[in-house]
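May I ask you for just one protein sequence along with its backbone structure tokens in two labelled lines?

_____
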Amino acid sequence: MNKKFTIDTIKDLKIKVKEMNETIFSYYTQKGFKPDDSFGLHTEQCEVPELGKDVVEKMVNALNKIDKKPCDEFEAGKILFENLILTPKQASDICFWTYHNHYTFYPYISKRWGNLWNSEKDIVNFSSYIIKYWIQSNSSQNELIRSPISGLWWSFYLTIDNERNDKYELTRLFFKNDTLRLRQLGTARFARHKPAILAVLEFIKENNLSLEKASNTIVPYVNLLGGIRPLSYFDKDWFKSKLEKRFGVKKEDKELANLKVSHDKNNEQGNSLISKKKSNQFDKYFCLNSKSGNYLVSSEFNIEWNYCIGLNSAISDQYLVHFYKEGKIKKSNVNNILNKAVDRSKPFSNGKCQKLTLIDVKLITQPVLFGIAYKTRYGIYFKAMDEQNLKNFRIDNSEIHQEGKKVLYIDESFQTAFKILPYKLKDDLGTLLQQSPTSNGAEITNKYYESKWRILNDYWPELFNDTIVWA
């Protein structure tokens, strides 16, 4: 297991596969990957312990036992996780996964996702199929959890609870529904925060909730909590208390009952989702489509939108903050939004800057610091900026479609990540808190800031354990 592809190899491999059609079967056979010299594959060393020779065989055998229900991969995933010892940083390495998808784990993937060689299956685009199941091109949570092998590993890592008598109890629940695991909870914006995942699964189990209906409602609600505060600050009990307060814990609670598994056909209509009930904390919601930029001001929480952020008309100083991949931050006063028509049949347009790629939207109601990280070929860099600095972030601008303030001036390709940090860190961060948007910050292995990194690690650990999701 001490090999992995180089990042350039993955890029070239993806391009080559896209150019193939029928010829793809000469290289991707049902028994293995058989490249020729035209592939130009390059590898490098990695420090991962060797996997036992019979591990993949056992995983395939686990699949053979459940041919009638091949989506149940719990046993195969358990074999993988117990034998493949990785750190979160190593498990986020797409070069590692893509290499071993093509060699070590090829027998498993070709068994689990073997439609490519099944004449009864109508695969429209062979190249897209290979790219989907064999080639991983980014380390986003979405791709890691949906990819065949990395998805199994991360599904166990995020859900094992060593405090339970059966540490795999919640993991089994997670594997019972692919929508829950691969499309809702597993790909949620808070999915890398294990206490949140455990809290949601524990709440579902304790209250005997329908997995799909619960995930369709609970996951957007927890995402909503992330719109008003950094979720990585909180432990499992905090999330449980929020869920219990929002959805109830008593059997006679009608709202919770609507999510329970029903065995009475006459009660099917009663099992509707609960998004129609408003939280007492909010009287309006900013609902945004992250791609089109269309938005609504809604009187209720709505799971159909990428973002649905609660607003409280009684609060005077509240701002929406749009974070963009290109290294820009737009802070907007919400007064203009609060004055717009509520529950309009036709959405408003220009809820984001159409020129830029939206990473996230947050609501702030008190002073904060903007944590700004970027990654280049030379390393990972961090700086913070004071949201209260009016020269950089105005408080009188309510035009949410504007580009905002450019906070990164980098002369080469880079990836970005942002984090809202508590204002109390202003003095602790010292010179890492920078006034000028043109400042480059510091590389996170710079020992001069060692004491600062220890403080920051308590609030943004993903930055240091390499589990951050870069845009």
Notes: The first helix runs from residue 7 to 19.
